[in-house]
Amino acid sequence: MPSITPSPSELPLLTTIASLDQATVKFFQNQYPDYDEHASEFPLWIDGVDTTYAPFIPTSVRRVLLALEMARISPTDKVLDVGSGDGRFCYAAVKLFGAQAALGIECEQDLVDKSTELATDLVQEGRVSFQVADLATWRDMASMQSKEWTVIIVYLSPEGGDDLCQWIQQEFKRGVRIVALVFDMKHLDGLHCSFEDSQEGIWIYEKPKN
Ligand SMILES: C[S@@+](CC[C@H](N)C(=O)[O-])C[C@H]1O[C@@H](n2cnc3c(N)ncnc32)[C@H](O)[C@@H]1O
């Protein structure tokens, strides 16, 4: 399946980062000072958390911004992060990219508590929320069956991603942009990769225009 690597002019990331409130960026950067984003794909198990579809490995703030930029998040978007960790994608999508709303689904209660605390202002405004749930029950979950999402973030192990493949394909088909982190989804039938940065481990799947 053809894919396009964006040119720097298509991704004015440095401009975006420069215009961001640096305090906000540091906010998440400082959560896990030992985290090395250049180590192996799943470099560290934080607090011994190891769950069914993937351990908690936070995406670095830099890669969160890059991925959201590549996905062209805008105020018309509603973002769903499946396996939301400490909620950084939801937080950044709404706070920094102006998405209308974001929901993080996460099976670890501690991480949902942490996410809620870190995003208190946005949670209070009702623009960001977090739900404790096991993604394996996606067929029964109203939040995953909702048609309101325009962007879905997936950073799970390949096995975890594959368990969700039917749902991902169904959502892609109805026009949702899929953002895959670390593991690409090129093996899934029907998905079209519109942008990729394989060095950073970010793939955007989007229906071709026309
Ligand atoms: C690799 S981390 C990604 C965290 C976050 N999306 C980020 O990019 O920083 C994967 C997350 O998925 C969660 N997770 C794993 N299996 C899950 C399941 N069955 N149901 C819900 N969440 C799950 C883990 O607890 C972990 O927080």
TrEMBL record:
MF terms (GO), sorted A to Z: protein-lysine N-methyltransferase activity
Among InterPro entries, the record links this protein to: FAM173A/B (IPR026170), Methyltranfer_dom (IPR025714), SAM-dependent_MTases_sf (IPR029063)
Keywords associated with the record: Methyltransferase, S-adenosyl-L-methionine, Transferase
Q: Is-annotated flag, keyword Electron transport?
A: no
The question of whether Methyltransferase is a record keyword is answered with yes
* An example Gene Ontology biological process: methylation
Would you tell me the Gene Ontology cellular component terms?
Answer: mitochondrion
Sequence ranges assigned to domain Methyltransferase in this UniProt record: 75-139
Family of this protein: Belongs to the ANT/ATPSC lysine N-methyltransferase family.
What is the name of this protein?
Methyltransferase domain-containing protein
Organism field? Lunasporangiospora selenospora
